[in-house]
Amino acid sequence: MTPTQQAGQLLMAAMQPGPATTLDGPIGAQGLGSMLYLGGWQESATVAAASTHLQDVSPTVDGTKVGMLVAADQEGGEVQQLTGSGFTSMPSGLEQAQDPDLRASAKGWGTELKQAGVNVNLAPTADTVPSEIGTANEPIGKWGRQYGSTPQAASKGAVAFGQGMQDAGVEPTVKHFPGLGRITGNTDLRDTGITDSTMTRDDAHLTPFADSIEAGTKIVMVGSAHYSKIDGETPALFSRTIVDGMLRDDLGFDGVVITDDVGAAKAVAATPVGERATRFISAGGDIVLTAEPAQVPTMVSAIEAKAKGDPAFAKQVTASVTRVLTLKEDMGLLRCS
After folding, report:
1. Which CATH class is domain 88-330?
2. Domain spans of the chain?
3. 10 close to 320: Cβ distance less than 8 angstroms
4. pLDDT of residue 187 exceeding 80
5. Does residue 233 surpass a pLDDT of 90?
């Protein structure tokens, strides 16, 4: 792979409803390796046609067709980006937690995604929202996205949902490490009030993530909140202590680590676009998710430039690309042409 193609494998860009060719530019010029349906796509047939096109235009490298990670944000409740014919209206996390056979239900929802060409779901939520915080927790509790108010309940729901998705041939994404359940601000909407002053490195709220990893999840999403007892004022996704130390070393996760959105999120707005990518990779992350596809060239250039001048960072890029390609190989996305 060229340096540009390597960098492109480490990015996921959103695509709003519209022409399936919207991302052809960054796929062709920057080797964009992953995409996310965002903005409320309608009808399975429409999504399936777009997914087919995306795989058709994905790059061929040294005789191997490198397919795309085609993702959706399909938790249920208030967070369901794909609706209409072919997509069941999914209940919220709190409602799913009451399902005695959630794994089977999740397999059904996952089968709908698979039929639409979606191979990654940016769910489940593994955040624990304590009952004393409840709906005051803006990102999760306010919308009932959590599976419960204890780590045990959150773990049970997240594991069942994730396994159901995998049963359907869709890779789940456990989020938002190390947990958003005890903050009051929403990292997508503001840059204040997003500090968890309670979380510790051996916190019980890490249990749902540990259990999901043990159950075989291959993708974990890291959030952009701050955790004052762990790494001061560094956002989680830029913290080597959190990504490399806690997630990789403490929990033994060797899969793909992805960011929450860094394109439009207020929590990282003060960080230059290119640095959002390089700082995450430096922390031990792999795929940078941006809701703004226009940022892809800037991020790719930043990754290339830093890798060229920093041998240690270049090794991290190589390791990240290897993890992404290993995931794609496991998913059957690498094919000899």
Report:
1. alpha beta
2. 88-330
3. yes
4. no
5. no
